[in-house]
Amino acid sequence: QGKFTLLRDTRTDGSFLVHHFLSFYLRAGCKVCFVALLQSFSHYNIVAQKLGVSLAAARERGQLVFLEGLKSCLDLLFGEEREEEQTGQPSPLQFISESASNLKALFDFVQTSLTPTGGDSWKGPVLLVDDLGVLLSLGAAPVAVLDFIHYCRVAVCSQLKGNIVVLVHSHEDSEDEENELVVNSLCHHSDLILWAEGLATGFCKDVHGEIKIIKRASLELRGEQDHVQIYQYKIQDKNVTFFARGLSAAVL
Q1: pLDDT class for 118, splitting at 50, 70, 90?
Q2: Are 71 and 44 in contact (CB under 8 A)?
Q3: What InterPro entries does the record point to (predicted)?
Q4: Cis peptide, bond prior to residue 131, ω within 30 of zero
Q5: Model pTM?
C-alpha cells in the first residue's frame, strides 16, 4: 500500500505490463481508476477477457472507473455533446481547449473516482495511467504533468493508502527533452521501476525483450542501494514467460 510503480519501456512496447496490473488489481478486489489515453475501452476489454477479467462487468458494478482519453479528446475538439456537460462536470481533459495547461480537472476526476463512499467495500484504491506521455503530446507542460502526479501521490498513496501505476515511453537518443525530463523525474520519485527494453541485438521470435526490476532504496535508510534484477521475457497469448538472460527454452 502507498506505493508508486513506474512502468518504463525503451525500443519495445511495455503495454503488457499495463494489462497485467489492470487484471491483477481487479481480481484482488481493488477500486481502480484507469486513465486510458492510448487505446479504446474495447481494446483493453478484449485483452482483459483473455486474462480472465471482464472490464465491462467491473465498470457496471462500480469497481472500475474508466476514462477513455481518445473519445474525450474528440468530444472536446469537435464540440460534440458530452455526458460531462449534462451532469455539469467539466471534462477531465479540459486543458486541451484552454490556453493554460492546467490538469486540475483530471486530478479532480481521479480524486472523486477513488474517494470511498459509504457503500464501498473495495480493498484499496488504484490509479493506473496509460500512457503519461500522451498528456505532453496534447499540450500539457512537463511541470503540469509532474504536479498532477505529485498531487495524485499525496491523495492516493498518502491519504487513501492506495497504489499508483504509470506507464511512460523513453528513448536514450530521443530529442523530446520534455518527455525525458518527465521520465527522469518520475524515476527519482518511484518506489518500484519495471523497465522493459528491446534486445540490443534486434528482433528474436523466442525472446521478446529484457525487463529490469529496480526496487528503489528507501530515502529514510541512508547507505542503502537500489536492488536491481534483470530478466528476459517472451510474451505468449495469455501470459508472459520470464527467464534469466541467455536461458531461453529455445537456447537450452
Answers
A1: confident
A2: no
A3: ELP6, P-loop_NTPase
A4: yes
A5: 0.90
